[in-house]
Write a structure and sequence with these properties.
Layout (H helix, E strand, L loop, with lengths): L3 H28 L14 H12 L3 H13 L8 H15 L3 H6 L6 H16 L10 H20 L3 H14 L4 H13 L3 H18 L6 H18 L4 H15 L3 H10 L2
Length: 270
């Protein structure tokens, strides 16, 4: 089951980012009105944002969802990014909750709430074009990545590759510079025998590794990259040994000495 410690760390982090995020957002909304002599009232007030944050901290997730869906559907506020990330956090809270009624209502055991969290978080990224708020939610992303990694790996283990593909697609939408997400996205294309898409997606993962070498990743992303390289090396070793060895070589600086990584290298002959 989900750990209370990680969940609480994410919720408590909201209290810290509240003042930063809200003050920045109010300034941003007013900045859109620079041509006006007298600033108009912000589209979404600081008090309204505060209420949403407190609801998330108090685990009143349904309140957040009911309120934010109005913002995302209203022509005046649907371009504001923060309601989308608050919906993403609320759905993740529902996914993590132990409340049986809430879990049943939102089909948490079928990962419906998790998928909605990914959906609205990816929409937030599209709305936050200048990444004004993106980096304020890293604790949330870490939990989202961990839950998504587990859900996707379950689908891969069950050979449900189309379902797994949707999880990895969301991760690449939310962070286009995550090589592990791209590498697993490519792997499921490979398993689905979608050769063109697999080739293109492998190329994106390869370029990220060549450009950054896996540096600058969050811990949960490094874990995903570790498992992605091992999975791909083992899978490709039976159909394209050179490609399998290439991925092991690309991961060598990061994972050399790791017991599982070295075992795969020995088994393939790298």
């Amino acid at each position: 089951m989900k750990t209370i410690t990680i969940h609480n760390a994410w919720l408590l982090s909201l209290l810290f980012i509240a003042s930063l995020t809200l003050s920045n957002d109010i300034s941003a909304q007013r900045g859109k009105q620079d041509n006006e002599e007298k600033p108009r009232k912000p589209l979404i007030s600081e008090q309204e944002y505060n209420k949403l944050l407190m609801w998330i901290v108090d685990e009143k997730y349904e309140n957040v969802l009911y309120k934010c869906i109005r913002y995302t559907e209203d022509d005046k506020t649907k371009k504001e990014p923060l309601p989308y990330i608050y919906m993403g956090q609320a759905y993740l809270g529902v996914h993590l909750t132990d409340d049986p009624d809430l879990r049943e209502q939102y089909q948490s055991d079928k990962n419906k709430a998790l998928k909605n969290s990914l959906k609205y978080t990816s929409k937030f990224v599209k709305k936050d074009k200048e990444k004004e708020f993106y980096h304020e939610f890293t604790e949330f992303y870490d939990i989202l990545w961990g839950e998504t990694k587990n859900a996707a790996e379950t689908e891969v283990d069950n050979m449900k590759y189309t379902k797994a593909k949707s999880y990895y697609k969301y991760l690449t939408d939310i962070d286009p510079e995550d090589p592990g997400a791209w590498l697993m996205y490519a792997a499921v294309y490979q398993q689905l025998n979608s050769k063109k898409e697999a080739k293109e997606t492998y190329e994106k993962a390869r370029n990220l590794m060549l450009d950054f070498g896996g540096r600058g990743l969050r811990e949960v992303q490094t874990e995903l990259l570790h498992s992605a390289i091992i999975y791909n090396a083992e899978m490709l070793s039976t159909i394209d040994r050179a490609a399998a060895l290439e991925w092991l070589a690309l991961g060598d600086d990061l994972f050399s000495g790791d017991r599982e990584f070295e075992a795969v290298k020995r088994s393939i002959g790298g």
